[in-house]
Write a structure and sequence with these properties.
It comes from Flavobacterium helocola. By secondary structure, this protein is an alpha/beta fold. The protein is built from 10 helices and 13 strands. Helix 6 crosses helix 10 and helix 8 crosses helix 10. It binds nicotinamide-adenine-dinucleotide. Nicotinamide-adenine-dinucleotide binds next to helix 1, helix 4 and strand 5.
């Protein structure tokens, strides 16, 4: 049995990934390390809590001593690193936590692996030789696009928010551990995810929550900002594939070719709600209100996923319309409780 460390597995994407990975990879025992910040919730992984190949550990990736002890205890074969501060709005009001967790935390994991491997290569080889260190990152590191063009893996980094800057910093540290120490690293940069288990603060859960409570549904600016939406399980499948078959030192963009602006997202969610849970009077669209735009709000993100599609054979299973229907149904159930 190989031990794999998954960081941030009680957050949105990690909590979709953990049960999926355990189910599909019987040769692994998965250790989920999560600090359980406001964004982490063990209910998100309740379906695996008693699984024999699953262990949850609460702890901070920024705590170097703790990380070293954990690596020594489990002698991990691989790491998949999700843990991060992830909400752009919070990075504007309080950037420090983002720099700490996303930059220092990532460095701690990499450097612990390096130090242990250098001290006893036969005992600890996580992230070296055939053991992988997979870093989960975002397309926001590329900055913003105009009306046309796509982010490719060669697009220069130009992060605009403290969140994306901290993720860009972490990507660069990962890169340097490949070039300097020969670590077996892969980074995936993914577009906006949506689906079950996302924190209530994010766009789609906010729309659904406010809509069914009869509150105003806020849209930043004119609602014309475009994001490339990907169903979370398709992201998880892309991570698993790149983790297993990606070339060491490479980065892979993951995106579903589903460019939609915020107005379209809100309108689609409202239309599904009109069908599934009609209001006694009027439509959910009547609750839409425009609010002051977020500072530094990037206009458009869109991913060119040709590299992971052509080289590794990944393809999104869900289109936006099928994925969003599943998603709205899931949140309606959740908010009913
Ligand atoms: P999330 O905020 O929902 O979850 C992050 C998890 O990390 C939480 O469970 C939190 O408790 C944990 N965490 C935070 N600080 C920690 C620390 N110091 N030590 C240990 N655990 C800590 O985030 P998410 O949306 O699931 O994103 C996961 C990863 O995917 C992030 O690295 C993010 O940058 C990346 N990503 C997200 C998206 C998206 O659309 N959500 C898109 C592309 C990439």
């Amino acid at each position: 049995m190989k031990n794999i460390l998954v960081t941030g597995g009680a957050g949105f994407i990690g909590a979709n990934f953990v049960p999926y990975f355990i189910e599909n990879n019987p040769e692994y025992h998965l250790v989920n390390l999560d600090l359980l910040t406001y964004a982490g919730n063990l209910e998100n992984v309740s379906e695996v809590e008693n699984h024999p190949r699953y262990t949850f550990v609460q702890g901070d990736i920024c705590d170097r001593n703790f990380v070293e002890e954990l690596f020594q205890k489990y002698q991990f074969h691989d790491v998949i690193h999700f843990a991060a501060e992830s909400h752009v709005d919070n990075s504007i009001s309080g950037p420090e936590a983002f720099i700490k967790t996303n930059v220092l935390g990532t460095f701690n994991l990499l450097d612990t692996a390096r130090k242990l491997w250098m001290s006893a290569p036969n005992q600890y080889n996580v992230g070296f030789e055939n053991s992988r260190f997979h870093h989960v990152s975002t397309d926001e590191v590329y900055g913003t696009l105009g009306e046309t063009g796509l982010f490719e893996e060669t697009t220069p980094y130009a992060p605009n928010s403290p969140y994306s800057a901290s993720k860009a910093g972490s990507d660069m540290i990962v890169r340097s551990y490949f070039h300097t120490y020969g670590m077996n690293v892969v980074t995936t940069n993914c577009s906006n995810n949506y689906g079950p288990k996302q924190h209530d603060e994010k766009l789609i859960p906010t729309i659904i929550r406010k809509a069914i409570k009869g509150e105003n549904i806020p849209i930043y600016g004119d609602g014309k900002n475009v994001r490339d939406w990907l169903y979370v399980l398709d992201h998880c499948k892309g991570i698993e594939l790149a983790f297993k078959t990606g070339r060491s030192g490479e980065t892979y963009n993951i995106g579903g070719r589903n460019e939609r602006n915020n107005l379209y997202i809100v309108d689609t969610v409202c239309s599904i709600l009109n069908e599934l849970q009609p209001k006694s009077e009027g439509k959910y669209q009547d609750q839409i209100t425009f609010v002051k735009d977020r500072p530094g709000h990037d206009l458009r993100y869109a991913i060119d996923a040709s590299k992971i599609e052509n080289e590794l054979g990944w393809k999104a299973d869900e289109n936006f319309e099928s994925g969003i229907l599943k998603t709205v149904r899931w949140y309606l159930e959740k908010f009913k409780k």
